[in-house]
Amino acid sequence: NAAAQGKFFLRAGTGVCLPSIENLDNELGAQERDKVRPGYGFGISLGRAFSENRWSFEINFSTAFYPDFEYENAYEAPFTGKLRHYGYMGILRRHWLQDSRWVKPSFGIGAGYGVANLVSGGGKMAAPEALAALRIDSAIRQNLWLAIEGIYTIGLQTKPFKGPFLENVDTDAVMTSG
Known about the structure:
Blueprint: E1 8-17, H1 22-30, E2 39-50, E3 55-65, E4 69-73, E5 76-81, E6 84-95, E7 103-119, E8 122-141, E9 144-155
Antiparallel strand pairs: 1-2, 2-3, 3-6, 4-5, 6-7, 7-8, 8-9
């Protein structure tokens, strides 16, 4: 764990992502369709420890992919929604038990920006986000650690999606004077 040595570190992880999009779930429920189901995600952080390795700051990029869902509106045939989320965060983390050779817990808070694409080619929502993260690092061997982490991310903006319904734009053509 490079953070324990006071150097720059690179961390990568993958895991399960549980979506919480109440309005979309309600709309899909009204259409007698399944809610958005859990997906998987990937994240990568570049960081540096400081203050005798009790603190670290990380720049994080994460992405989440969710199972496709069927959606319909009154204006076109049903189509497939492809929900994706991309997050860009700065995370300040407090580390405990720095003298432990085998287990090191930490807690982090962060802020950044997130973008969710609800439909391929359109249906984009973007907003500032905040997160809280609890992680436990466990040594596998010297300089190799396994981390188990739970992260809760929340959007900080409550503006609704600008369109009254989702629309499939994969096959739409936009004509201009050019």
